[in-house]
Structure formats: structure tokens, C-alpha cells
Amino acid sequence: MSAPRVLVTGGAGFIGSHVVDALLGDGFEVRILDSLIAHDAVPGHVPAAAELIEGDVRHAETVRRALRGVEHVSHQAGMVGLGVNFLDVADYVDHNDTGTAVLLRELATAEVPGRLVLASSMVVYGEGGYACPEHGSVNPLPRAAEDLQAGEFEPRCPTCAHPLHAHAVTEDARLDPRNVYAATKVHQEHLTAAFQREVGTPVIALRYHNVYGPRMPRHTPYAGVAALFADALAAGRPPLVFEDGAQLRDFVHVRDVARANLLALRADASVTGAFNVASGTPRSVGAMAEALADAAGPRAPRPLTTGEYRLGDVRHVFASAERAQRKLGFHSRECFAEGMIEFASARVQ
User: Fold this and answer.
1) pLDDT tens digits for 126-175?
2) What is the pLDDT of residue 2?
3) What is the per-residue pLDDT across 101-121, written as a single tens digit (0 to 9) for each?
């Protein structure tokens, strides 16, 4: 009996390529659909054991061909990051929303027997979890530009303006996208949920937190903060930390993310819905920059906290990974300090 075949959209990219490696290592057959627009050629990390179809997930005929003989789909393709400015809006909607809609339409027609795993993101939450001493759990309003300019970075209670306490966000938190990319990820989740209800294909949406590790994109405004910091260090420049550096995130290694995808594809058909994929240990952005600088060596420049800000950024968002551990058997395995050393060394090669 042949091994199940999985289609990985975006399988030549940062996270997608690690998903491909994990699937091949677990005995799956893998087909990659990737436009390669982020690469000058087929990346060297694309394994010969995987079938590669060069094409765009927005093109129905290409998707139709890629789905032939497939049992499961891991949908990793799309635009990521905050981008340059709001002028990127049409590209984000086209790549993320239209691409997902085309894939779902062709999936519904092809009647793929297995499940769909969607690469979602923690950005769907907007701000993370907060509690007010007087009013309990609250959803803070978007931070005002005048407060940020004055160096007032912490959200306050929308009722009494009292400082708030940040806590881990769970999957049942309200979705509150605060930028274009976040809005497209929410829409992807809504589209795949409608697909599951109407077609019956089980869907899992994995809400990645701040992913880092080998193969992370370089020299692009769409890269994550870890990549921007590491590239600055590789060039002999101090990482520029926005705000006061105390904003909290959950930094999760890409190999842990790939393993979460593997577990999601292996899950029972009754297991559906959204799952945080996170280390479970929040760290400040400033502390992450310091860890990267330490990993880069004693002569590396130290991070510089600038007080600058971006209106699309949120203050604190870190996750509870309890649901993923309970239902998928997922927990983070990669050591943060060792991951920072590996990541820093990979950026200077």
C-alpha cells in the first residue's frame, strides 16, 4: 500500500519547506506547489524526494493538476509580515484570500479524502489577553498615535484607563485583526471553516506565533523581527528594537511548527478548529534581540532600543499551547538558546 500523498502549497518557502522535510521523514509522499516568486531558482533545500510543481495557487488549472492523487493538503502559501505600507493591501488580499478561495473551490471539486491544514497566525488576535484589576478580562482599544509618540506603549482598560495585566491568549479569544495581513488570515480561517461546514472536509487552522529558524527570508520588509535583527547583526549593525523592547511575544522554532503540521495531518478526523502553535514561554522582543546578539559572538553590536513604533503593531501577544498539547499531542521541543545560536550562525553563511 502506497504512502499517503500530501500537497504542500508554498512548500519551497521558509515554513513550508520544513513541513515538507517533516512529512518525508514520517513516510508521506509529498507534492509541492510553489510559484517560486520569492526565489531566483529552485532552492537547494527542496528535496529530490518531493515532486515540485512550479505554479501559483491562484491559478485554478495549476491547482487542479496539483490535487490529483492527493489525500491531504497543507496550505502554507501566501504573503506574510506587515509589508511596507497600506498600498500592499491588494497584493495581500489577492495572494492570501483569493489564493485560498481558489484552492478551496478546487478541493471541493476534487473531493480530496483527507484533511486540510491551514497556516494561520497569532495576528488574528490583535492584542493578546489582558485583565483589568477592576473590570476583569477586557479587550483594549487600538493604541493611539499620540500615546505611542509620547512613549506610552502599554494598553489601558477601555473603561477606567487602568494599566492592564497581560496573560496568555487562548483559541477562543475574540478575533481582532489590527493590520491588513491579520485581516487576510482571519478571512482565510473563515473561508476554510465555511468549506468544512459545506463540504465536510476536516480543517485545522494552526495559529503560528513568532516563528524563527533556518531558511527564514532575508533582506525583505516582509521578514519577521527575528530575521531583521539577525541580518543587522550579520552586517555589523545593532538590531533596532522598537518601542521600549518590553513587548512580549512567543518565539517558536520552525522545526516545532513543522512537527505541529505533521501532528495535525495525523490527527483523527474529529479533531478540527484552531490551535495555537507556540513554545508556551513568552519573551520580550528586547530579550530576544539580546539573545541573538549573545549568539552572534562577543564582538557583535548590542541591540539599540529606539522608541520608534508602527501603528499596525500590538503590544503583547503570547499563547496558551494547552489545547494543541491536549488534542494534537504537540509541545515545543527546541531549546530557545540553542535555536538562537543556530539561527545567528545561519544568517552569516
Assistant:
1) 999 999 999 999 999 889 999 999 999 999 999 999 999 999 999 999 99
2) 67
3) 999 999 999 988 999 999 999
Least Cα distance to 129 among 119, 120, 137, 121 occurs for 137
Distance between CA atoms of 293 and 279, rounded to whole angstroms?
21
| HSE toward the beta carbon, residue 208, CA cutoff 13 A | 26
Backbone angle region of 333, left / alpha / beta, with phi > 0 → left and psi within -120 to 50 → alpha: alpha
Buried-exposed string 56-82: b where 16+ CB fall within 10 A, e elsewhere: bbbbeebbeebbeebbbbbbbbbbbbb
Report the C-alpha gap between 80 and 121 in whole angstroms. 10
* pLDDT tens track for 268-297: 999 999 999 999 999 999 999 999 999 999
Give the residue among 248, 258, 255 at the shortest CA–CA distance from 280: 248
Q: C-alpha distances in angstroms, 208 versus 104, 154, 256?
A: 21, 24, 10
pLDDT at 220: 65
Find all residues with CB under 8 Å of 339, minimum gap 6, and list them.
Answer: 212, 213, 253
- Which of 303, 196, 156 has the alpha carbon at shortest distance from 244? 303
d(CA 98, CA 102): 6
**Element containing residue 251 per DSSP (H, E):** strand 251-253
pLDDT digits (tens, 9 = 90+) for 202-252: 999 999 999 999 999 876 655 678 888 998 999 999 999 999 999 999 999
Identify whether the C-beta of residue 280 lies closer than 8 Å to the C-beta of residue 250: yes
235: left (phi over 0), alpha (psi -120 to 50) or beta: alpha
- From the list 31, 27, 11, 7, the residue with the least C-alpha distance to 19 is 11
Please tell me the distance from the alpha carbon of residue 191 to that of residue 343, in angstroms, as a whole number: 34
Alpha-carbon torsion (209, 210, 215, 220), positive or negative: positive
CA pair distance 165, 186, nearest whole angstrom:
25
User: What is the separation of C-alpha 216 from the centre of its chain, rounded to a whole number of angstroms?
Assistant: 12
Identify the CA nearest to 307 among candidates 226, 235, 247: 247
